[in-house]
Design a protein that fits this description.
This protein is α/β, with parallel strands linked by helices and 504 residues long. It folds into 2 domains: 329 residues, Inosine-uridine Nucleoside N-ribohydrolase, Chain A; 120 residues, Immunoglobulins (Immunoglobulin-like), CATH 2.60.40.10. It has 14 helices and 20 strands. The strands form 7 sheets. The chain has a 6-stranded parallel sheet with strand order 3-2-1-4-5-6, sandwiched between helices. It has a 4-stranded mixed sheet with strand order 11-18-17-13, with no helix packed on it. It has a two-stranded antiparallel ribbon with strand order 7-8. The N and C termini lie far apart (57 Å).
């Protein structure tokens, strides 16, 4: 019976997804990859994962570049090698979800940058096949922005913007820049700081700074697997990003898995640049501060620290901290935690997709469909009960589902004093399809938005999770906060809470 239900659900789902994909392909992100592949193994790892999710976006470019670690050569051959392996499994992937690009398409967008370091490859006569393709991609009559994910040095992007600035009007340059969305893995050459300074309107996500100054240790992206090397943090389950797990769940899975190298420093340091583009219901690319598998970022001007060679000149999306209970049962607060808090979910999801490369539909697991029984935006007032519903959630394989509702405090602006716990808002029946909470009144420092995350997980192998986000806008802001003090409970003007004294 389960197999019949699974097949029926799969057919219906694929037809529905196919209709959406055919009618609304414009909803897919456009992605352009710059990679210093072969400087170390992690770029090849990230490319393997990128390709098994390639039905989630339109792949507009795969460009081999240089970096501080590989200054005078590119390795475009390695991109072609991995794409060839993808071509051997693409048809099997398509049995599980529609929309995977053909090998021919991927080959058609492979290019390379100039084999030189940083700004030495930017300026008059420094065009490359990579920079030319990027200009062509951005210039296409397509309203969608282009996500440039930078795994090495960004000098291909720098040359494209230099060329546009030199050859077009100020208005045309502004229009070109407005279509770009950039995520760089730290600063792996000197063109990154130049880009941020020269194009203040450029949408930019980065943990800024240079390797020689220890930037990788502090970077958000190190949360993907830097427990024991770059970031050196505790709290996450390191076994899920270590070679034995990767051997069993990734490398053993067919010709594409065979292209996944052993970890030398950390697993997939470049993967966070595109993880928030995965359509899992959790992240929203236009709102990096909402958080997701690829981390959470806030908009500000980073202060001068030792990894930076020069002060930053303007705000951009950079490191933010989450507070989370780790696998060790202890609370941890860091920017790395904004990624590793989701580790089990994104690793199990990757393992399932690698199964898709070699298994028929009915022998693999597929993610559940998380649905809300109400709008994803609500308004509420203090002390009001807010009802939450996941009715309608289902699983394509007929698997049983479990539910978790939780408060993502850092993603919203509603602020509650939380000296005793990182979860100051209690959700009743948080493990059931229907849950509820009461908008707090005690210890409220600021009204604003409350972000509630629904996580729906199946009991398949590996178990998979999908999400929905509910944003509740608490609207009764009277410029007061209610706080408990040692003499009792009272209402006080906001400005008065900065006085000396103990808050309990």
């Amino acid at each position: 019976m389960k197999r019949i239900l699974s097949i029926t659900f799969a057919i219906v789902s694929m037809l529905a997804i196919g209709q959406v994909a055919g009618a609304q392909d414009s909803g897919k992100p456009r992605v352009f990859v710059l990679t210093d592949i072969e400087n170390e193994p992690d770029d090849a790892m990230s490319l393997v994962r990128f390709l098994v999710y390639s039905n989630q976006w339109d792949v507009e470019g795969l460009v081999a570049t240089t970096s501080i670690h590989q200054q005078d050569k590119t390795a475009v051959w390695r991109i072609r090698e991995i794409v060839e392996a993808y071509g051997k499994v693409r048809d099997n992937l398509a049995l599980h979800e529609p929309g995977f690009p053909t090998e021919d398409h991927l080959r058609s967008v492979i290019r390379e940058g100039r084999p030189d370091y940083g700004m030495r490859a930017v300026g008059e006569g420094m065009d490359s096949t990579g920079s030319q393709l990027l200009i062509e991609v951005v210039d296409r009559d397509d309203p969608r922005p282009v996500w440039v994910t930078v795994w090495g040095g960004p000098n291909v992007l720098a040359q494209a913007l230099w060329k546009v600035r030199e050859t077009r009007s100020a208005e045309a340059l502004e229009a070109f820049v407005s279509k770009l969305r950039v995520y760089t893995i730290s600063d792996q050459d000197d063109s990154g700081p130049w880009l941020r300074k020269s194009f203040p309107g450029l949408f930019y996500i980065a943990s800024p700074g240079y390797h020689s100054g220890g930037a990788y240790h502090f970077a958000t992206w190190s949360g993907i697997g830097g427990d024991n090397f770059h970031a050196r943090f505790t709290g996450a389950d390191f076994s899920l990003v270590d070679n034995p797990w990767l051997d069993e769940n990734i490398r053993a899975k067919g010709p594409l898995g065979a292209q996944y190298p052993w970890v030398k420093y950390l697993m997939e340091g470049d993967t966070p640049s595109y993880l928030n583009l995965v359509n899992n219901g959790l992240s929203h690319p236009d709102h990096p501060n909402w958080g997701g598998w690829g981390g959470r970022y806030e908009f500000y001007t980073p202060r001068m620290t030792k990894p930076l060679l020069n002060p930053e000149t303007r705000p951009f999306w950079s490191n933010a901290e989450d507070e989370i209970i780790g696998a060790d049962g202890n609370w941890h607060t860091s920017n790395h935690a904004t990624i590793w808090r989701w580790r089990e979910a994104y690793q199990f999801d990757f393992a399932a997709r690698m199964d898709w490369t070699i298994k028929p539909y009915d022998e693999a697991n597929h993610p559940p469909v998380a649905k809300l029984g109400h709008s994803d935006r609500m308004t509420a007032k203090s002390e009001q009960r807010v009802n939450l519903s996941a009715e309608g959630s289902a699983d394509p394989d007929g698997d049983d589902l479990s539910y978790e509702w939780f408060y993502y405090q850092e993603a919203g602006s509603f602020t509650v004093s939380s000296a005793r716990t990182g979860q100051p808002l209690t959700i009743e029946d948080a493990d059931k399809p229907n849950a509820w909470f009461t908008v707090p009144t005690n210890r409220v420092l600021r009204n604003g938005t409350i972000h509630i995350i629904l996580a729906v997980t199946d009991n398949g192998t590996p178990k998979l999770t999908r999400y929905q986000r509910v944003i509740v806008d608490v609207t009764d802001n009277d410029d007061v906060v209610k706080i408990d003090i040692d003499k009792g409970t009272g209402y006080y003007p906001v400005n008065s809470i900065h006085r000396k004294g103990n808050l309990h």
